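ugh finaly. both done.
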Amino acid sequence: MPNPIKQSPPQTSSPEQTRIALGIEYDGSAFHGWQFQLHDAATVQQEVETALSKIAATPVRVICAGRTDAGVHATAQVVHFDTTSVRNERAWVLGTNTKLPPQIRILWAKKVSSEFHARFSATGRRYTYVIANREVKPAIMGRQFSWQCLSLDVEKMAAAAQYLVGEHDFTSYRSVHCQAKNPVRTVHGLNVERRGELVILTIHANAFLYHMVRNVAGVLMAVGCGKAQPEWAKQVLEAHDRTQGGVTAPPFGLYLVGIDYPDQFAIPESKSSLSFLN
């Protein structure tokens, strides 16, 4: 009698994954930066992933558009994640927010194509650095502003800023711990303006190096205080040597305020309720 044919178990296709993009704002002063850390330190990524995993009822890992340092804020961080869980956009926003600490909020959720990548699809990023320029250090929102007691000359700062616009080797403006292989970045615009007691720097570039914005702010503040002439910003740039630069400005006062994506992805633009960031 022939051996019976063994029947293979029925093949079932794995559930189709959906890619979801989220817009996030957060007050970074309570966290050790965005990126998850092995030691026991609170990070924005850890809080977001924990909250999303509860709503998805399965582990979720997110990829962000730009990692922020300890103490740095964001009004327009963008992340994406893949999931087999079926939830509507309202559930991803409102449900996740109920699981997050008050310093973090999901602003929007959107189903996107698998071609979208929060980091690699980005064509540009915008940061704003806010300085409270007055004699006395602010007691209110002290962790949302940097502070400079010496009067800042905004016109000289703006003149110095123009030396940094364009494609340059920003070795002198990045941390010695920066791991990027290529120090060349393109700064599309660098604006300096005063609004009352606030001096606001806005920088738009294709990408940024580690501590690049804070080192730019440090040089511009040194020029604004009269410690150096505007041309010093160019001299620092051309030195290609971090030791020739200024002091790294504090993280408080730095905000990630925008990520640029191709129109095909239709990623929503996040606007802050804080007027000095718009």
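ok and the 2nd:
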Amino acid sequence: MKILIIGAGQVGFFLCERLSQEGHEVTLIDRDETHLRKAQDRLNVMGLAGNGASAEILEQADIKNTDIFIAVTNMDEVNILACLLAREYDVKTRIARVKSIEYRSHGAILSKEKLGIDLLINPDDEVADEMVKISCRSGAFDVAEFVEGKIQFLGYRIGSESPLCGMTLRELGELRGMYHFVVTAITRDETTIIPRGEDRIEDGDSIFLFAHKKDLPAIQYLLQPKAKKKKMPRVFILGGSKIGVRIATQLENQHFDVRLVDRDEQRCRKVSAKLNKTMVINVEGTDIHALIEEGINNADVFIAVTEKDETNILCALLAKQHGASRTLALISKPELLNLAPSLGIDACVSPRLSAAGAILKYVRRGGVISLATIEGSNSEVLEFEVQQSSAIIGIPLKEINFPNGAIIGVIVHGSSYEIATAGDRVVVFALPDSLSKIEKFFA
């Protein structure tokens, strides 16, 4: 496919990298020639310097023959105007990133329907929603939901004390009478594999598994038998930005004891007026003595979402050192995203990945309903709806000749998880090299 991307920032660069590796014809437009040169030097993309909201520039980029148009600059107005121009050129799929314009609320003045845009995405909202999911899944560092939340995809880090440490996948399969889940991938030393029966789970591994939502309590007990369930878990949120407020609002509704910390007194006043039950605390995130007085030593979760990666990492480590059970950090820089977990931070969330995951769903073929990206491995989890013409209809799961580098985690078909029929949902874990084969398989 021919894909035109406006904006060479972190999201734009990541999309160029992923899509060009898959063989798509990618053109990148940005005002900053330095960003363009970086992309052209490292990636197989064509760069064009200029304003992405200019019809002249878009015509130079051959917009008339473009299949997918993605505008992800840092300016909402440029992204929306560029998509409106793309609509005039009859581009089939149009996507815009927006951060400041309200478009989700009921009766919003601007909505994707009114603008004729297929996807309006706010990275801040995506990050906040992901933080909330991880906070509500004790011990997990990665969480994605499929089939309207019924199927959970979870990532766990395995320590030497884990009951799973030292077990082979075959031995783990013998526990399925009590614990219903399937391990679809293991990451070890920055390499992700799809494990087979004799592969062993080792100390330091990260495992990814599929499970039904109703089975999570039993799985949680297996993975963390010493964890105590509280009626009202306590969470500290560092940073009173839109992300912090959105997280606090959602966790209030989940019956968490929420405490939001920010050093700006004026911002604290504004945040306090927006939240119902959250305690707002006006201190520095590094003022650990003040935080201890507020109960950081009994915190179940500490979430750092300031605008600085370094502050988020430092404050998360301080909170962990002084008794917080789990720490989550917002990390924008790719080089810090892989470093933070090795320092002891339980989960890191990237705005770049959160936004890209939502966008890639519109690029994928074969009836993709939802999609999640896995940091560090470029793997993806994809949910497909089986089409009437699909070759897998009526074939038992064990007899399906599935592409190498991918595994079917779940087939949702009433109470059966073995035989696919038209309209079934299939959730698949796929390594990077198999993505195009998977799309063709379900197309």
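summary for the 2nd one i guess: The chain has four domains: 2-121, 127-132+231-354, 137-223, 361-442.
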